[in-house]
Amino acid sequence: MEHGYSIKSKPQYTPLHWHEKATGHLLLAHGAGGQALINLLQQSLPRQQVSVLYLQQTAADAEYAAKMKAVLDADCHVFTAEASLQNALKLMLPFMYMGTRLYVAGAEGFIWSMTALLKPFGIAPADIMQQQTGTMARSVYCVHCKATTHHVTTNITPCAGCGSMLFVRDHFSRNMGAYMGLMVDAESPGELPEIEEIYR
Amino acid sequence: MNSINIKVAAIDQVTPLIKHFTLVKEDGGSLPAFSGGSHVVVAINIAGRVHRNPYSLMGSPLATDAYHISVRRQEQSRGGSVFMHDEVKVGTALKITYPLNLFSLAKLGRKHILIAGGIGITPFMSQIADLERMHADYELHYAFRSPEHGAFAAELAQTCGDKLHCYTDSQGARLNFNELLSTQPLGTHVYVCGPGAMVTALLESARDLGWPESHIHSEQFLAPPIGEPFTIQLARSNKEILVPAEMSMLEAIEGAGVEAEYLCRGGVCGRCELDVLDSDGKLMHHDHYLSDEEKASGKKIMPCVSRAQCTRLLLDL
User: Fold this and answer.
1) pLDDT by residue (tens digit) across B245-267?
2) How would you list the strands of the sheet with B274-279, edge to edge?
3) Interface touch A21/B209, C-beta < 8 Å
4) How many domains does chain A have?
5) What architecture (CATH level 2) is domain B3-101?
6) CB within 8 Å: B181 and A98
7) Does some domain include residue A165?
8) What is the pTM of this model?
């Protein structure tokens, strides 16, 4: 990453804090995002209903889940597969009212897969408070073959779809939840700049 | 500004105070298509002085053979609406701007709650045509003073069926915003158009219940208020202009032959914003566009509706 360089399409995340005005709070997180939710619950416990949907992936995550259960009891729902969390969320949303505010904490991929799930329910990205936690790894969308490569930590990556060596740009698509990847050696095949791990 | 030459094809007295004007192109062609919630600005020439008033388009956005606007007679104002009521006849030629939408539907919304007060029903007439075509989930809540003031209520009942909810003040029926907004499904948008107090109350209720700003929509065109005369200086045009009591700053600037940007002329769109370089008095902001911080800074002003109490107001124009 270059000093002093930023582009508008790159999402800005923010540490979670309670919306003062709300009739309910729905918190979604996975992995290290559990710590962000615990921090939030420690700030204060709002008067309104608080529900957590948490995706537990490692042994360390079980501790986060236990701490949240201790505070929220049955309103903390823990899942071990993202698909089950998504199904539960889809079943809950039609019964929720306007005034329920949404919060997401986790890796960028998780944030945007939740945001994409919420969109058909009429909830826009701007309505969701998002905190990035854990890895800085990126999802990269190949502009040539349209495949998405996940968990990219380097400035240049082979495309999971077509194998082209892609340069990872800061240009981000909220619809796809991925950064734009362009073939880096299109003009002079095989000539690659130095590959560095920069998104850990 | 590009304008369209139109003539009045029909006038209907809809309520004791509201007239409905059907406008067709002077040369008989079709008018530009628009989207639900759009308005046009009508130029009204009263004794050589041009008033420009924004009016919402009411017809179906797909019908481009004619535009439909409704005008409420405002006795306590500068005369534009009274002129429309008393002087404009079938056959009168007028100039209007191209349609502009500052009150569009959020097409991705799951449900739409439309709230109208009195003449505030007009932008919803075209929005409802869009919602019906989209087979969208919506409710129209329409409040008016007494049965004879419920413009288009019968027509709406036919189009909207049980989606229409009327509240007649004289019969004691009141719309409770908190009750209405507290049980709407996630993904709902609310739209309000009506008197100032109604819009303010709705916005407050929605915000208190935690509705995100992106789900709250309002439109309220303001007529330029009448005030004390004051003088402005234009830095780039090197002119000093007197703004009379019954004229807006924008009208005075145009009257002096200086071209200024504008779109809605009702304090909503932000196009006419001017930088204030210097002033020795108080700016009286009347618009809905500038933020409270911008208003307090004294660095910007919307000349379409705002005024000042000063002897010097230097504008970057």
Assistant:
1) 888 999 999 989 999 999 888 88
2) B239-243, B230-234, B313-315, B274-279, B300-301
3) yes
4) 2
5) Beta Barrel (2.40)
6) yes
7) yes
8) 0.87
